[in-house]
Amino acid sequence: MNIQNDRRALVKSLHYIFGVTLSVFIAFHLLNHLFALDGPEKHIQIMEQFRLVYRHPVVETLLLLVVFFQIVTGIRLIYKRDAQAIAEKIQVYSGLYLSFFLIAHVGAVLSARYIEHLDTNFYFAAAGLNYYPATFIFIPYYFLAVASISLHVSAIHYLKTKSKPAAIGIAVVGIVTSFIIILAFTDSFKWLDMPLPYEQFIRVLI
Ligand code: HEM
Ligand code: HEM
């Protein structure tokens, strides 16, 4: 029993350390997406700056490893957790969505980059958000990703501090940010045209 508890505590500490590390990337990544409010060129210009750091082979390898271990440790934590309180349930379900999203999202980015030889810039994400019928899948897909990350953090904050207003505040800021990113990527649902290779990529997919 004690060995099991020790192991769980270790997995939880690793999930915590990887989680904090990954949050740094996520913060810059979402900030990058908010720059799309100023148009695709601005988004791409900022992404090119950020890529100098996270596309460095050492940084990118570490980032992809952290993503992998975050999913593995998260699933292990769910497996031995009897979620009772609403905050615990939110933590588990947001974690499950994040597992699915991270595998799909990182897999899509890497295969578009190395198999399709596409530059995975603004237009790569926007293609799915702007063309019918893909838009019906990609709007909830991206919206729920950003909402889940904020719900996950909000639940952690509540379970650690029991402060309801702060937890609700974190969730609301995240959900509003998620909506703003969707607005930015779709020109407020007036829809955007993509360069041909990106349009073809999404039309073949869906
Ligand atoms: C994407 C990024 C993620 C971040 C930044 C993150 C971050 C965190 C942090 C900081 C904690 C608190 C640990 C503690 O209480 O010391 C936590 C808890 C938890 N996370 Fe994640 N997590 C992420 C993804 C996931 C995934 C993919 C899953 C699972 C499928 C998951 C499942 C859980 C569970 C079940 C707990 C509760 C642990 C417990 O108290 O028993 N998380 N997460
Ligand atoms: C919880 C939310 C998200 C997480 C955890 C996440 C995570 C990641 C990770 C780990 C990468 C791989 C970076 C690399 O190795 O190059 C990536 C790339 C990318 N993501 Fe996300 N992402 C999230 C949300 C989004 C959203 C909402 C969008 C757009 C609507 C998006 C668009 C992209 C694009 C375009 C790339 C390629 C970046 C590049 O080529 O430099 N992501 N994301």
Automatic annotation (TrEMBL):
<dbReference type="InterPro" id="IPR034804">
    <property type="entry name" value="SQR/QFR_C/D"/>
</dbReference>
<keyword id="KW-0812">Transmembrane</keyword>
<feature type="transmembrane region" description="Helical">
    <location>
        <begin position="166"/>
        <end position="186"/>
    </location>
</feature>
<feature type="transmembrane region" description="Helical">
    <location>
        <begin position="135"/>
        <end position="159"/>
    </location>
</feature>
<feature type="transmembrane region" description="Helical">
    <location>
        <begin position="91"/>
        <end position="115"/>
    </location>
</feature>
<protein>
    <submittedName>
        <fullName>Uncharacterized protein</fullName>
    </submittedName>
</protein>
<feature type="transmembrane region" description="Helical">
    <location>
        <begin position="57"/>
        <end position="79"/>
    </location>
</feature>
<keyword id="KW-0472">Membrane</keyword>
<feature type="transmembrane region" description="Helical">
    <location>
        <begin position="16"/>
        <end position="37"/>
    </location>
</feature>
<keyword id="KW-1133">Transmembrane helix</keyword>
<dbReference type="GO" id="GO:0016020">
    <property type="term" value="C:membrane"/>
</dbReference>
